[in-house]
Amino acid sequence: MRRGDRLFEIIEIIRSSQNPISAARIATELGVVKRTVYRDVTTLIAQGVPIHGEAGVGYVLEPGFHMPPLMLTPNEIAAAVLGAQWVQTRAEPELARAAEKLIAKIAAVSPEHAQMSFVAPPTSVAPVSSSPEVFGAGEMRRAIQSRSKVRIGYRDANGAITRRIIWPILLGYRDEGRIVAAWCELRAGFRYFRTERMTDAEVLEEKIPRRMDILRTEWRRAMDAERIGFESRG
Prior knowledge:
The chain is of the alpha+beta class. It is built from eight helices and seven strands; from the N terminus they run αααββααααβββββα.
């Protein structure tokens, strides 16, 4: 969790508590050590958040404190809502729910005059049919985040199935279906894999033996070289 998000969560935890809440309880909820809570509360108090605390008793938030409104222009709100609508209609349920919660959080801290943009947004996204997948997009995202190799069965356009171990580096969302950009050990090169063509998949304990930023840079260079070569042949 980023520090800015953690500071916000600390305020919400203290606000929602009926009684003074200890640093130990806050630390448990956030999955951090007490020292981190002490430091973050000190930062919040220095920024003017009216938190009061006493050793052995806990922290309380002064009644009437409200987070300052999030000042967004109408176009910024429209962009945020439209992006969330796209994710809600194209992404897997886990990410779709996250998009819904994101908009709710933005609406909660936006000024009153902007609320209608959330209640009746001026944009919409046409729904699409989802492609069948044997391996959830959420699992693939977590494999990328943990730098884990993935073993897949893959069916090509002709129906032939090959067994591969890939190093997934990016999950691309399309109107229908998803594409994984990865290094393929079988082909010893970067490839794209359509998730609906994966017949099975398994996240391996073995980690990708490269830093992800370096791997992505190499992937972009390889794609640029491929594009330039294609254009020169045309």
